[in-house]
């Protein structure tokens, strides 16, 4: 780990007015981590808020919307949670990109852009796990609200505890959340077992159009704008759809491409132990974790797919050499 939980806790104890930032295209970990930290700081008597994230979907809105900062709020300290780099902040938060005081994150290649402190734990499956350790250092006991935020953050970034980034510490966090009153059955059903009709229709399209490469070890799908419009699928419906190609037996790399409204293409990569997803994405200015990473390419879908497939094939050739 880079930094120390005790130092970060001390900095937060010294600040009375705190603003917390989340990353663009917010997931359960950044929203859960931010919501939990905000609630905990308020329990300590701090004035703590979250910067509004305009990209939050209905799935995670309840974790952050109650804590959005009022207009004109002046923070003594600005904290970024689960934000892998400054350019991962959404456009509405770019004004804070060069004045983040504390970074709390679990992406091992984080450039440590916090001006006062960087608490980076690349060995953790979720940023929410680091927040749990931090709250213990701050002396904040979990209540049901904080625990729900931490559980969602931990569960979503570990695939409901199925991914290889799940550790003993991950389960310790989950146990603490259950002991605080979290109903994991209801949460898991909503997040992992329930699909909208639009999501179901999109999955049918992706299964029908999935492409296989490198003797079936690479599977690629394209989420087209026209298919999203036809099915009525929004980003909430498409949450975690990047894991779809990797579910096919024999597939070691799943590539999920998504056409964006501005003409660029997003790629989300999920891999087995054989391939480093983050290494592929770094070739295109992206990043993430060894088994899950992403990037946005300034190209139309077919060109983006060609480029990413070329790099992915090269990774395989180098591995097999």
Automatic annotation (TrEMBL):
<feature type="domain" description="DHHA1">
    <location>
        <begin position="223"/>
        <end position="314"/>
    </location>
</feature>
<dbReference type="Pfam" id="PF02272">
    <property type="entry name" value="DHHA1"/>
</dbReference>
<dbReference type="InterPro" id="IPR001667">
    <property type="entry name" value="DDH_dom"/>
</dbReference>
<dbReference type="InterPro" id="IPR051319">
    <property type="entry name" value="Oligoribo/pAp-PDE_c-di-AMP_PDE"/>
</dbReference>
<dbReference type="InterPro" id="IPR003156">
    <property type="entry name" value="DHHA1_dom"/>
</dbReference>
<protein>
    <submittedName>
        <fullName>Bifunctional oligoribonuclease/PAP phosphatase NrnA</fullName>
    </submittedName>
</protein>
<feature type="domain" description="DDH">
    <location>
        <begin position="18"/>
        <end position="154"/>
    </location>
</feature>
<dbReference type="Pfam" id="PF01368">
    <property type="entry name" value="DHH"/>
</dbReference>
């Amino acid at each position: 780990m880079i930094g120390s939980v005790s130092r970060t806790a001390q900095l937060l104890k010294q600040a009375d007015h705190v603003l917390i930032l989340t990353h663009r295209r917010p997931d359960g970990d950044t929203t859960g981590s931010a919501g939990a930290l905000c609630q905990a700081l308020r329990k300590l008597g701090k004035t703590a808020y979250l910067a509004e994230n305009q990209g939050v979907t209905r799935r995670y809105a309840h974790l952050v919307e109650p804590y959005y900062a009022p207009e004109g709020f002046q923070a003594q300290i600005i904290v970024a949670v689960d934000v892998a780099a400054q350019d991962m902040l959404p456009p509405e938060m770019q004004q804070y990109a060069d004045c983040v005081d504390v970074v709390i994150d679990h992406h091992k290649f984080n450039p440590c852009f916090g001006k006062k402190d960087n608490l980076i734990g690349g060995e953790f499956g979720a940023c929410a796990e680091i927040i749990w350790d931090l709250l213990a250092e701050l002396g904040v006991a979990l209540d049901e609200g904080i625990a729900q935020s931490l559980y969602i953050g931990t569960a979503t970034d570990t695939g409901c505890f199925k991914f290889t980034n799940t550790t003993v510490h991950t389960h310790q966090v989950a146990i603490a959340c259950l002991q605080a009153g979290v109903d994991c059955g209801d949460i898991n059903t909503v997040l992992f077992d329930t699909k909208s009709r639009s999501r179901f229709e999109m999955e049918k399209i992706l299964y029908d159009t999935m492409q296989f490469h490198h003797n079936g070890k690479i599977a690629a799908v394209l989420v087209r704008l026209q298919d999203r419009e036809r099915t009525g699928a929004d980003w909430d419906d498409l949450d975690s759809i990047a894991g779809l190609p990797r579910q096919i037996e024999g597939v070691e790399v799943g590539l999920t491409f998504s056409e964006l409204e501005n003409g660029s293409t997003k790629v989300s990569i999920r891999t087995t132990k054989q391939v480093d997803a983050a290494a592929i994405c770094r070739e295109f200015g992206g990043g993430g974790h060894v088994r899950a990473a992403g990037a946005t390419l300034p190209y139309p879908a077919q060109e983006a797919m060609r480029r990413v497939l070329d790099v992915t094939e090269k990774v395989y050739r180098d591995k097999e050499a």
